[in-house]
Design brief:
It is a single chain. This protein has four helices and eight strands. It has one domain (about 1-135). It has helices at about 75-85, 95, 110-115, 120-125; strands spanning about 1-5, 20-25, 40-50, 55-65, 70-75, 100-105, 130, 135-140. The longest helix has 11 residues, at about 75-85. An eight-stranded mixed beta sheet has the order 1-8-2-5-4-3-6-7. The radius of gyration is 15 Å and the shape is globular. Bound molecules: zinc ion. Zinc ion binds near residues 34 and 70.
Length: about 140
């Protein structure tokens, strides 16, 4: 297991950054164990803030994998894309793929308030915790255990 890449993402949210984030592109790898430390991951349901090109913010309340040792949050790419397509039927698969960025998370209370009040995007940015960084893991001779 190697950590291939650490990307610095420009800050958008007004709250303190939280979580290291991995958007899992491997359809058959569910990461019940952490790709970094091999400990068992838990589940955490969180409102994700997603930016869809060119200028469409999107909130998705989604169950993710989480490793508390590494502060690593993992979302499965195919699930995220399927949920975006379900929620925004005007988008097609080609448009979505490679044209969105999972930016960060919101507190559940903020998310509920924003959904209920149909708040403008500024309110969402105000409540947004960006990810500390986005990480990518690649298999090295299979997933180490
Ligand atoms: Zn870990």
């Amino acid at each position: 297991m190697s950590k291939k890449d650490e990307m610095k993402v420009p800050r958008l949210g007004k709250q303190l950054p939280r979580y290291r984030f991995f958007l899992n592109p491997y359809r058959h790898e569910r990461f019940s164990r952490c790709p970094q430390c091999s400990n068992k991951t838990g589940q955490r349901k969180l409102p994700l803030f997603i930016h869809i090109d060119p200028n469409q913010p999107f909130l998705l309340n989604k169950t993710c994998r989480y490793c508390s040792h590494c502060d690593l949050l993992i979302a499965h790419q195919n699930e995220v894309e399927r949920l975006i397509l379900t929620a925004v039927p005007t988008l097609d698969e080609e448009t979505v793929r490679g044209h969105y960025l999972v930016v960060g998370t919101l507190d559940r209370a903020d998310w509920k308030r924003i959904i209920q009040n149909d708040s403008p995007v500024e309110a969402t940015i105000e409540a947004l915790h960006d990810f500390k960084d986005a990480v990518v893991f690649t298999p090295v001779g299979g997933w180490g255990r």
